[in-house]
Design brief:
The chain is an alpha/beta fold. The chain has two domains: about 110 residues, Rossmann fold (3-Layer(aba) Sandwich); about 170 residues, Dihydrodipicolinate Reductase, domain 2, CATH 3.30.360. A seven-stranded mixed sheet has the order 12-11-7-10-9-8-13. Strands 3-2-1-4-5-6 form a six-stranded parallel sheet, with helices on both faces. Helix 1 links the parallel strand 1 and strand 2. It is globular and about 55 Å long. About 5% of the residues have low confidence.
């Protein structure tokens, strides 16, 4: 019996190459939906281009969604309706309500949904998670992520599914949840603020999270000037000491502002985890509930920006 994974990629932007390369390294057969940039990716990686979403879904066992955020729910629902598993780049959807709808639809269809929060698969962050108990109960966590601002306009349109918090900071909002657990209060600021629903770089956002266990997370994200090197840092302070990770300790940077943090490609590690979860029935390192929870914090952060006050969850 042929157990070759058959993958249909939807999306041809900056995050598509590491997904394609990861799948190919795992021995998958990969096709991509025809859209701007798809032909060049297909030629570079030796994969097939398919003209329609229906055809792509039909020939795939797993649909990998790496398209702009507002398109995620409709593509995922179409895949679920045909009994296909879905890998979906973060965030799952523009709102937590739509993210929950996607998660519920996967469960109802009896298929798997894997939110692609790849930072959980970087070795430094994974070690932070594995060793967090060594410093005792968390008291204070800090996260910062700085990257050159993206070149594509939709990223800046908060009302159309973009935005600094939704697109970039969500990596560290997910980390805060992974490391310190659920959140009860969210407070956010952004400089400069959005004008008519759009932000203009350089722009920075700061979100403070009060976790239900009393820990406080300070999360900052920056879309900076062209040529700004990528950097991310994270630390946990507990009664028994401090743990930290800093990508400045790592040589090189990968696609989409994410560092090449080890000899083992985190995208490949992520996709291998998803494949194994399908084959064994176990949970992956990131679950649909994790994906929804991260979007819920994004919603709360934007609500705090709009009101100028903390938001209780």
């Amino acid at each position: 019996m042929d157990d070759t994974p058959r993958i249909g990629i939807v999306g041809a932007g900056g995050i598509a190459p590491p997904h394609i390369e990861g799948w190919l390294a795992l021995g998958a057969e990969v096709a991509i939906l025809r859209r701007t940039g798809a032909d060049a990716l297909a030629a570079r990686h030796g994969i097939r281009v398919v003209d329609s979403l229906d055809e792509l879904i039909e020939m795939s066992g797993i649909v990998d969604i790496v398209s702009p955020t507002p398109t995620h729910p409709d593509i995922a629902l179409a895949a679920f309706a045909r009994g296909r598993h879905v890998v979906c780049e973060k965030p799952l959807a523009v709102t937590a309500a739509d993210a929950q709808l996607v998660a519920d639809a996967a469960a109802a269809a009896g298929v798997r949904l894997f939110p692609a929060h790849v930072v959980r698969y970087f070795e430094g962050y994974h070690r932070l998670h594995e060793q967090r108990a060594s410093v005792g109960d968390p008291l204070e966590l800090t996260f910062r992520r700085t990257v050159e601002a993206p070149a594509v306009a939709w990223f800046y349109a908060e009302d159309a599914g973009g935005g600094l918090i939704r697109d970039l900071m969500i990596h560290d909002l997910d980390q805060a949840l992974w490391l310190a657990g659920p959140v009860r209060e969210v407070s956010a600021t952004q400089d400069p603020p959005a004008v008519a629903g759009a932000v203009e770089p350089p722009v920075s956002a700061h979100v403070s999270l009060t976790h239900t266990n009393g820990a406080i997370s300070h999360v900052r994200a920056d879309w900076s000037d062209p040529g700004t090197p990528f950097r991310s840092t994270a630390s946990i302070v507990g009664a028994g000491g401090e743990l930290s990770v800093d990508t400045d300790e790592v040589v090189g940077a990968g696609e989409a502002g994410l560092p090449s943090a080890s000899a083992v490609d985190p995208y490949r590690t992520q996709l291998a985890d998803f494949l194994d979860a399908i084959r064994t029935g176990r949970d992956a390192r990131v679950t649909p509930a994790d994906g929804v929870a991260a979007v819920l914090l994004v919603d709360a952060a934007y609500a705090s920006l709009a009101s100028g006050h903390p938001v209780l969850l």
